[in-house]
## 1
Amino acid sequence: MTAPAANLRINPDRLWDTLMEMAQIGPGVAGGNNRQTLTDADAEGRALFQRWCEEAGMSMGVDEMGTMFATRPGTDPDALPVYVGSHLDTQPTGGKYDGVLGVLAGLEIVRTLNDLAVQTRRPIVVTNWTNEEGTRFAPAMLASGVFAGVLDQDWAYDRRDAKGLRLGDELARIGWKGTEKVGARQMHAFFELHIEQGPILEAEGKDVGIVTHGQGLRWIECTVIGKGQHTGSTPMYMRRNAGRGLARVTELVHEIALKHQPNAVGAIGHVDVYPNSRNIIPEKVVFTIDFRSHVLETLNAMVAELNARAPGLCADIGLKFSAEVVGFFDPPAFDPVLVDRVRQAAQRLGYSHMDIISGAGHDACWINRVYPTTMVMCPCVDGLSHNEAEEISREWAQAGADVLCHAVLETAEVVG
């Protein structure tokens, strides 16, 4: 395959303007976004993306999980397409770039090719995966998981949010339940550009991250049962305080992650306390542990230690502990040919770069199970993400999109 000419660049101002226009949909309260999956704001963002794609000459397909596929034809109608994309949904207090950069950089690649009248042998498909964040409907990367055959579609439809609303019903309500069978599409390769969501690239002064591996993940929903009693009239020695169980397991999670360094992490990020009254001792606490590592043996060892020790820590103080894995994926190693293609593109374009392991989960992690896949990362200020203060520079966005463009074009095979 012939690499694109080194002077080929995307239009950075157009990409940035597109990012800012999308950020106007589902604004947060502190400068970011609240465009959670399958909300009215998500539907509005999808409609804007579809309009942009159609204006760029692409045709839109939507599968039964609501994932959007915008296709720019290639010269060979029988050639498998090159897919590029990420997600448009956000956290409740999300930033303007997490996921969105990867989708709109794919759109910018197509716009650049149109500007320069460049054709590729393989079609290029820009993708917006449904429910990547998993904040409203757990687990994360839900639609890509169904696409890869890891998660069951009916099970996915039955996921419920905090109000008890079903994912399948909400998908139909906002009008984005498509007719394509999930997973019926075949890919030659999949590329995903994403902000790092960590501090390494900025600290090292690098423009681009070459993602070689992703971290595996286990989300473990835990329940501690005690006894709800009056906080003022119940003697200390007679209390069965479920909050103490949460405290003990919180320290245990931290201890387990520290024992499995390097590149292993763990924390409790979501907690529900019942009945959540200031003068009632907690009778039940439900919380979710997030364990991650890029080494499968390490990930499994952390979960095993939690299951071995947490029940006893709670039983010692009169509490019952139970746990269920509600989100998971094993650590992916991305396709070495595509990884090298990204690395060569960064070198050819003169961008500083380094190999990196993704600390977060991405749709690419599931697609890697079934088709050759890799990722490109750009820095973000202070490594901040899943926060309305999330920020990147225009130059970082351009560097990531330029490298993505070259790797995609080399894979899609420029004609002429």
## 2
Amino acid sequence: MLLADLAATSAEVAATRSRLAKVTALAGALGRAAPEEVEIVASYLSGSLRQRRTGVGWRSAWTSVDPAAEPRLTVVEVDAAFEAMAGLSGAGSQTARRAHLDELMGRATEVEQRWLAGLITGETRQGALDGVMIDALIRASGLPAAEVRRAVMLAGDVGVVAHAALCGGADAVAGIGLVVGRAVRPMLAASAKVVADAMASLGGVVAVEAKLDGIRIQVHRDGDDIRVFTRSLDDITARLPEVVAAVAALPVRSAILDGEALALGDDGRPRPFQETAARSMSVDDRGRPRMTPFFFDVLALDDDELLDLPLRTRAARLAEIVPAELRVARTVTDDAAVAEEFAAGVLAEGHEGVVLKDLAAPYEAGRRGSSWVKVKPVHTLDLVVLAVEWGSGRRRGWLSNIHLGARDPATGGYVMLGKTFKGMTDEMLAWQTARFLELEDHRDDWTVYLRPEQVVEIAFDGLQRSTRYPGGVALRFARVLRYRDDKPAAEADTIEAVRALAPAAG
């Protein structure tokens, strides 16, 4: 199959808002794929490479190599090229990787170059999210939906299941089970604004657990072999030896544990999230805080698979093997006032919020279902847009990533707190492109700098210390709520008001 065929399918999917039409187009592409192409096609049309790490950076992806005149590049050739890039390491690897990428891009047409760049950077954004691809696989294979979905959850990879379903059939899909050492997609939580709403949606007696400000970990132990995976299923075992040691000390032969890891201060309170994130991204732990694991679920224990058992049973089995100091704090109640009090205590200890859980629910791997509901404070600020960057991929031609500033009364200027392109609809992108070009002061190749006049209401999950920005703090998980045409820049929030949130925001 030619890469051009996938680029055309992606364009077809992006051009429609109909989920049914997207599924039909994707199912057609899967059906046309040869056995050796199925896994690649499923991954590429889900918007990702099969290789988790290729070493190709965001800027490198947007090549200046002259394109080919005609499409001749196959998906198998593209996958082999990225596999070669992923295998490079050591002295000279960057130069060699650049040469590999240039050679690949030189064999691609202009359309294919743009699509490959979006694939590398994760910006294909054609609307073929994972759930749509799974529906397409169900249609292409003709297999029962429940069996395909469960296999994807347990394999952690839709491409692997696509190959099994389309090349091996029902027996191959049924053979995909829970395996210690192979990461499964984690269960996710829905959201509620307040504890009372979460209690009402679940009903009855629920578990109320602390939501820690750490990184999600899934730890697999098979005898002396222990592996630690992230929420995105990356293997970070070598980076967290203290987590490995903690699990090695547990009285168990085999287990799959779900939890969080975070850096704690001497007072037992969580350190700022960026310290946890930095510690989890490098094998070099010199001068960095230790990471402590806290577990809240167990999916397998010795010879028992626990996925389908109710949470109350899994929690009891977890308590049998994990000491209280390594379990996430929880209470069980049907009283909203008790849940509110517990949540207040969690926040006072510096954590993010709480997760309320249905005690009768199984572990729904890979799903954001209704049996787990998270509640955490949402902070908002009215900030000023200082600059905006041109978009790429699907957003090419639109002004997208906005630079956010707080007002500084002491200088009469603005202090930058971060950037975001989250929360923007197509209509908003079109509006802000026209609006920001009206406010343009000057520009460079990538960024349009603005007169500081437009106020935007931003939601964010917290603040973190920052040496990058002059105010010393940066927003975490910022997203646009709305533009405030009713408010002048002179009434935007000040840097002092932002800093005052820092202790509570973490």
## 3
Amino acid sequence: MNTATKQATAMISADARPVSGAWAQEARADAAARLADMGLPTRRDEYWKWTRPDSLIAATPSPAAVFDYEGEPPVFHEIDRLKIVFVDGVFDADTSDDLSGEGIEIERLADAAAADIHWAKDLYGVLEARGQSPVVRPLAAHNTAMATDGVVIRVTGQVNRPVSLFYCHEDDSSDAVLHHVIRVEEGAKLTLLENGPAAARFSKVCEVDVADRAEFHHIRAQGRDHERQAITHMFARLGAESVFKSFTMTVNGRLTRNECVIELLGDDATAHVAGAALGDGADGDFHHDDTVFITHDAVACESRQVFKKVLKNGAKGVFQGKILVKPDAQKTDGYQKSQSLLLDDDASFQAKPELEIYADDVICSHGSTSGAIDEEALFYLRSRGVPAHIATDLLVLAFLADAIDEIEDDAIAAEINDRLDAWLARHRG
């Protein structure tokens, strides 16, 4: 037994796992066995060579100061939404809205897991387990085994307002492990919002099953707390003619790794994953990693990966994205773009775009670029009287526009754009 395997076994002992009902206990035990078999990630692993996992697997998290927002309202504050609040990884009923609603069923994971029979049995840990091949994701298995709270959501109709998960951070040494399970039934539609610092160290898994002709829209904002560390996973399974769209805005944070694993299993399904990240190393370490794996296993499906990072003062960005097209996935349309804008010579960006194609009637492409501000465009704006700092901000926002355009709700897209503009104003040189 090597060191990584010994550490994994110690982390997921039966005594440490949460007490739950029969189905959840079985799922947790299966996840613990997967983790014990895989071992914890190390820098020798192919998909961890650019991101150090040490702090994510340490016995205790590094303290993270609770961020003072100085009166600035949280993202999505003005949007009419159903709010579900977690404080340092624990559901807070007092500040959450009533969880009942037309066309939607919402429960705490802790309550659902206590039952001996529950619909979540068919999903909890199931999509995560599927996502372990061909690339292992040990920290997702650890989450399934050890998650103490989260929500399970079943959507049966057109939900009129978004469901908003708001993560509060009050303890500078908190270590939150949340797991969400979402099923969007045939023809139903859900928009899920996520924001908030969550904890000193945050582990989250979200398993999403999107049935035939259903739609799932996800918008997430990570920031402005400077010292947080987070590892998140989203596993999704798509039926015929279904739609899955996810966008993440990230500003600041010591270490953030977002993984997304999607299977398109029904014909004519659509999956779009996008992100915009802004990092300034002057506030402390900034390392941001997007790792995406999309599998096409049906006819005439479309996937898009659009990731943009703006980095300066030693900030580091990573993108690892793969499109796998299986033999019967004819007429696949797969597209992948990862770009970074380096605002000085100290910032860095590593990218690993991949295509693996076993069908012959496909359209697949990928591109990755890294560069500085366009001097000609900057000169054009300056020559027309635009101050240098404003001209730079305008070019940065134009660079990020492709990713923000993936958000379908215009009001949410406008708020995201405003937040990015405000970050740029705070971080002008």
## 4
Amino acid sequence: MSILTPENPQFNRIMITGVAGFIGFHLAKRFLEQGRKVVGIDSVNNYYDPALKQARLDQLLPHPSFCFERLDMADRKAMEELFAKHKVDAVVNLAAQPGVRYSLLNPYSYVDSNIVGFINILEGCRHNEVKHLVFASSSSVYGSNTKVPFSIHDNVDHPVSLYAASKKANELMAHSYCHLYGMRATGLRFFTVYGPWGRPDMAYFLFTKAILENRPIDVFNHGKMRRDFTYIDDIVEGVSRIIDHLPEPSPVWNSDLPDPAMSYCCYRIYNIGNNRREELLRFIEVIEECTGRKAVKNYLPMQNGDVPETYANIDDLERDIGFKPQTSIEVGIKQFVDWYRSYYKV
């Protein structure tokens, strides 16, 4: 299949769930810049500061091609009415209850949002002739895997958090709908996304805030962590290309040796990561350089549900859509710190 470019999009009316969230906001801006119409939905809950979510929305609402609906994806009737009202070509599902550590405290929120909400998305796509569903999975699905870089062709049946299990469930649910109803779906395993307008519960945000307020930072696993940090602009570029790249049945899929990354139906999985490992202590060092202040580190043991390392193999992504994320943490963190100082007037 030929690669469509964002300058020549196949789909012009797109629904984005979680549009007031970090990735959803940036993706909506990109689609609107490309001349597409965006129907955005979000519950604007209080998992983190709703004022930040509203500030993101305030940038989108004036656009004539943007329509916003405030609702909870777990509300079945509201979701049925939403899909009936807005006939869209494609859906990007980014709404979810995020966070590994929070899943230890409030597991039911993950079932409501990530499981019930997702089945409502699948049913909406099924009954309204949506041509492509792109949905957010996570690097967390690799769980206790230790072979790196993490490959979409590896088994991921050993999650270490409920959040990860819910994301793996999304992948399985989407595949079953592709098999049963001829839907087309693409799952994206995001690797530690960061950047301006990011989530306040993420480590880089917490580190920056604490350092600028002269407070200690909590460094888990005594700093012996490595992450594949992926800058938001790279994520958005990847998703904006994938939305127009319809998955096809794999001609080499073998039911005797099934490859989890592909299928006999119109379903695919991709990693989106920077394809490099960064030491957590180096990441903190870059934040120190960008803020001009030294961090006071409080070293702690590994938390339940966390993993010591993430690292994405993105060969399939690069081959199929002709794109490879490559923003360095030195560039990305500077952009984030500059935004943080401006937004919070530090």
